[in-house]
Amino acid sequence: MSKPTPRIGRVEEISSTANPRIKSIKGLAAKKNRDREGLFVAEGQKLVTDALEKNWTVRTLLYSRQAVQDTKLQSAVEALAAQVRSRGGDVLITNNKLLTSITRKDNPQAVVAVMQQMQTPLERIKAAGNQCWVALDRVRDPGNLGTIIRTADALGAQGVILVGESTDPFALESVRATMGSLFHIKLVRTDEIQFIEFCDDWKKQGGSVTGTHLKGAVDHREIDYAQGPQIVLMGNEQSGLSDALAGACSSLALIAMDGAADSLNLAVATGIMLFEARRHQLRIGNDIT
After folding, report:
1. Rounded to 5, what percent of the chain is helix, strand, coil?
2. Using CA atoms, how far apart are residues 272 and 98, in angstroms rounded to an integer?
3. How many DSSP H helices and E strands does the chain contain?
4. In whole angstroms, how far apart are CA 248 and each of 34, 126, 229?
5. Closest Cα partner for 34 from 125, 196, 167?
6. Any bridge partners for residue 60, and if so which?
């Protein structure tokens, strides 16, 4: 029995914001529509290239004919469009005004894509090797979340676990702030009860959970993060870790500060904690599993 012929995406020219396909794409600005469709919008040639390299599904690629008149850029975008079509995605050739209406930016990128969301189920994560994960309790700010995802990618973390009612990682602002790192690491979403049960299993498997807390008893620099797989757990921007999550930690750390400021931005605090954890882990070699 012969295999079915793979679908080749269609090419269509659209210039009106009233077009039904454009209205549907613009509707992805609302979280309820992203959740229902399992789709999201990403902008920029680099982000789309990164997504394809990591085998994310691009449903629709849009590009502005005006913006790609430069010969080199036109060649690159047409090659990207051909790759999307070969994988079954459609290509819409449009204009700057229409892309502005989708991205809500006066000077939009030449390329915008509608992609299928990808997430990793919590139960697939096992404590093994020299892993390090970041977990965020009810993170609210999309810029913070995007920056944390980018930082986790840069420092070699396996992924980011979102606990509770967090901002949507697939919101345009979050995706934009990741600068493509969204496609390089694993993303998990769970609730508090499931995460606490997961932490119990993680610790039984030899892993540790280090949370940050104003009542932390240990200087963040004094923890030995090289003793088994790590989860770095960060609290909500306003209220910090919930009592239940603090109770699930192996240790509670206080970030050492020498200045007059009494608090840090969540993305900065996460970067400090993650850097320290990875600094310890990388001392014992580069065997990251």
Report:
1. 40, 20, 40
2. 40
3. 10, 12
4. 32, 17, 16
5. 167
6. 90, 114
Please list the residue range(s) of the chain that carry CATH number 3.30.1330.30.
11-116
Supply the pLDDT for residue 288. Answer: 41
pLDDT beneath 50: ranges in the chain: 285-289
Q: Which CATH superfamily is domain 11-116 in?
A: Ribosomal protein L30/S12 (3.30.1330.30)
Beta-carbon contacts of residue 47 (< 8 Å; ≥ 6 apart): 113, 175, 179, 180, 183
Task: State the Cα torsion 130-205-151-212 to the nearest 10°.
Answer: -120
Fold of the 122-283 domain? Alpha/beta knot (3.40.1280)
Q: Which residues contact 245 (CB under 8 A, 6 or more apart)?
A: 137, 163, 192, 195, 196, 211, 233, 235
- What pLDDT, on a 0 to 100 scale, did the predictor assign at position 279? 87
Q: Say what the pLDDT of residue 26 is.
A: 96
HEC string of 131-156 equals CEEEEEECCCCHHHHHHHHHHHHHCC
Q: Whole-model pTM?
A: 0.90
Which regions of the chain carry the CATH code 3.40.1280.10?
122-283
- For residue 44, the Cα-to-chain-centroid distance in whole angstroms is 16
- How far apart (Å, rounded) are the C-alpha atoms in residues 184 and 176? 14
What is the enclosing helix (H) or strand (E) of 236? none
pLDDT value for 287 = 45
> Which pLDDT score, from 0 to 100, does residue 69 have?
74
Whether 62 contacts 111, CB under 8 Å: yes
